[in-house]
């Protein structure tokens, strides 16, 4: 039997870890999903984009950094499978790989859960950065779920990321907080780009001029848009079932999230037309507005 | 007959104006409020400071114009990446020379009366504006009260007469400081 010197074996192992099929060095993209305001759909966005990316064949790990208020596990239906958390990794009670919980359906998808019994000071910025850097070698995408607020929890979550998705809704308070977050992200050198995801848009209210439109929010924040997600009651049932809505082929919100994932990968996907006007006049209008939209 | 028609006309017009006002949509209100609040968030200009700026501008401009002081709007607005200070004043009429002269003298007397140091600063601002806006009044004025005004060096003063006074003023400023 041939025995290789240990050094060569080590190198071989290294190559397996750090290269993909094409032999290129694999370096995952670390994307933090943040919002400032709570309840706008950060965690839902995280679960859905993560699942959609995994469905597209990417290796994805989600990190829940909301220590003490973890929820990402619930949305993915993984709450019963968590043995170790990010705090266990940091305090060296387990290896990083042991703490990664595989998704029920998709083997490409993993979760690194937050500790429920600890507070935000249990993990430092450096430790999170180290974890992200390690995971970069094995995954295409590392999605960091950021806690609400702009305190230490936010600083931790952003520490390892180079991209950000700012989730907001077309409400004044959410937009104001998003503006604050954008200001903070712009001040961070490590964040190379940030995109806006407009959640819970209600086309009917926009139509009747009772709610700010997508254009209004984009203009006010002057940020690039990566997705428009319509308000969808299906989100509630999907959360209750622990099954992200992207797995529901019929859901409009699910489709919108799948489109976001495609845009993250780099595809050029047009934004969904959320107005469901099925009358003849509506269709005619839609046709013409489609023509107008192309000129932009 | 004519009166009846004008009356009717006004009533109809008034009706439409009213409905227009009422129809300011929730969306527009939200957008406008947000723009104002974000400007304040971004610039650190508190509402108090904006109010003070507004008051000072009213004080300054009312020397030259008769205007609706309450309706003066002062807002920071964003156009793309740039921030602009938007000032909208409903002007009732422009004042004539005599009135302007009078107003200027009044404001100077005010300044003489009040304490010197703090007043000098605000006067500096006001007068540099004065220069550009009404040169004639300014000329007479600065000559009359040369010693009190160490600050007529605004870039707009390019007439000979004026530049002379500017030099003198600059000197007087130096000696003062």
Structure, explained:
The complex is a heterodimer of chains A (296) and B (177). Chain A is α/β, with parallel strands linked by helices and 296 residues long. Chain A has 13 helices and eight strands. Helices cover 43% and strands 15% of the residues of chain A. Chain A starts with 5 loop residues before the first helix and ends with a helix. Chain B has helices spanning 2-22, 26-43, 47-61, 97-113, 116-133, 135-144, 160-176, and strands at 65-67, 73-79, 82-88, 91-94. Chain A binds chain B through residues 172, 175-176, 179-180, 183, 206, 209-213, 216, 220, 222, and chain B through 25-28, 30-31, 33-35, 37-38, 41-42, 78, 80-81.
Question: What is the topological layout?
Answer:
The complex is a heterodimer of chains A (296) and B (177).
Chain A: H1 6-18, E1 29-34, H2 42-55, E2 60-64, H3 72-76, H4 86-90, H5 96-99, E3 100-102, E4 109-112, H6 125-136, E5 141-145, H7 152-159, E6 163-168, H8 172-186, E7 193-201, H9 203-207, H10 214-221, E8 225-230, H11 234-241, H12 252-265, H13 280-295
Parallel strand pairs in A: 1-5, 1-6, 2-4, 2-5, 6-7, 7-8
Antiparallel strand pairs in A: 3-4
Helix pairs in contact in A: 2-12, 6-7
Chain B: H1 2-22, H2 26-43, H3 47-61, E1 65-67, E2 73-79, E3 82-88, E4 91-94, H4 97-113, H5 116-133, H6 135-144, H7 160-176
Antiparallel strand pairs in B: 1-4, 2-3
């Amino acid at each position: 039997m041939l025995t290789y010197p240990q050094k060569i074996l080590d190198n071989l192992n290294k190559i397996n870890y750090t290269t993909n099929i094409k032999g290129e060095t694999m370096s995952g993209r670390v994307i933090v999903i943040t919002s400032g305001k709570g309840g706008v759909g950060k965690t839902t966005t995280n679960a859905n984009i993560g699942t959609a990316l995994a469905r597209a064949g990417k290796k994805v790990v989600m990190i829940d950094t909301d220590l003490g208020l973890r929820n990402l596990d619930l949305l993915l239906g993984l709450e019963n499978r968590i043995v170790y958390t990010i705090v266990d990794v940091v305090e060296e009670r387990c290896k990083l790989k042991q703490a990664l919980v595989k998704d029920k359906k998709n083997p490409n998808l993993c979760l690194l859960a937050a500790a429920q019994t600890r507070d935000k000071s249990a993990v430092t910025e450096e430790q999170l950065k180290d974890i992200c850097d390690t995971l970069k070698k094995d995954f295409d995408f590392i999605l960091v779920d950021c806690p609400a607020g702009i305190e230490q929890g936010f600083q931790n979550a952003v520490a390892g990321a180079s991209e950000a998705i700012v989730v907001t809704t077309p409400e004044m308070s959410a937009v104001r907080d998003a503006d604050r977050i954008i200001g903070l992200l712009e001040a961070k050198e490590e964040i190379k780009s940030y995109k806006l995801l407009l959640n819970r848009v209600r086309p009917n209210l926009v139509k009747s001029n009772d709610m700010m439109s997508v254009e209004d929010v984009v203009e006010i924040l002057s940020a690039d848009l990566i997705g428009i997600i319509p308000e969808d009651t299906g989100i509630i049932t999907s959360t209750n079932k622990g099954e992200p809505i992207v797995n529901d082929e019929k859901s409009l919100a699910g489709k919108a999230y799948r489109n976001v994932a495609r845009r993250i990968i780099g595809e050029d996907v047009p934004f969904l037309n959320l107005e469901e006007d099925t009358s003849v006049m509506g269709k005619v209008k839609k046709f013409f507005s489609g023509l107008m939209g192309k000129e932009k | 007959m004519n009166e009846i028609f004008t009356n009717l006309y006004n009533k109809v017009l008034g009706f439409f104006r009213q409905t227009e006002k009422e129809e300011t949509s929730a969306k527009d209100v939200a957008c406008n409020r947000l723009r104002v609040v974000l400007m304040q968030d971004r610039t650190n200009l508190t509402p108090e400071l904006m109010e003070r700026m507004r008051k000072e501008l009213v004080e300054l401009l009312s020397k030259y114009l008769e205007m609706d002081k309450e309706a003066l709007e002062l807002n920071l607005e964003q156009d793309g990446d740039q921030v602009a200070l938007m000032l909208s004043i409903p002007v009732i009429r422009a004042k004539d020379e005599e009135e302007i002269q009078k107003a200027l003298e009044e404001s100077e007397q005010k300044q003489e009366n009040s304490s010197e140091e703090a007043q000098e600063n605000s006067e500096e601002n006001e007068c540099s504006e004065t220069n550009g806006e009404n040169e004639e009044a300014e000329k007479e004025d600065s000559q009359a009260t040369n010693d009190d005004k160490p600050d007529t060096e605004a870039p707009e003063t390019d007439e000979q007469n004026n530049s002379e006074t500017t030099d003198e003023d600059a000197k007087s400023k130096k000696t003062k400081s």
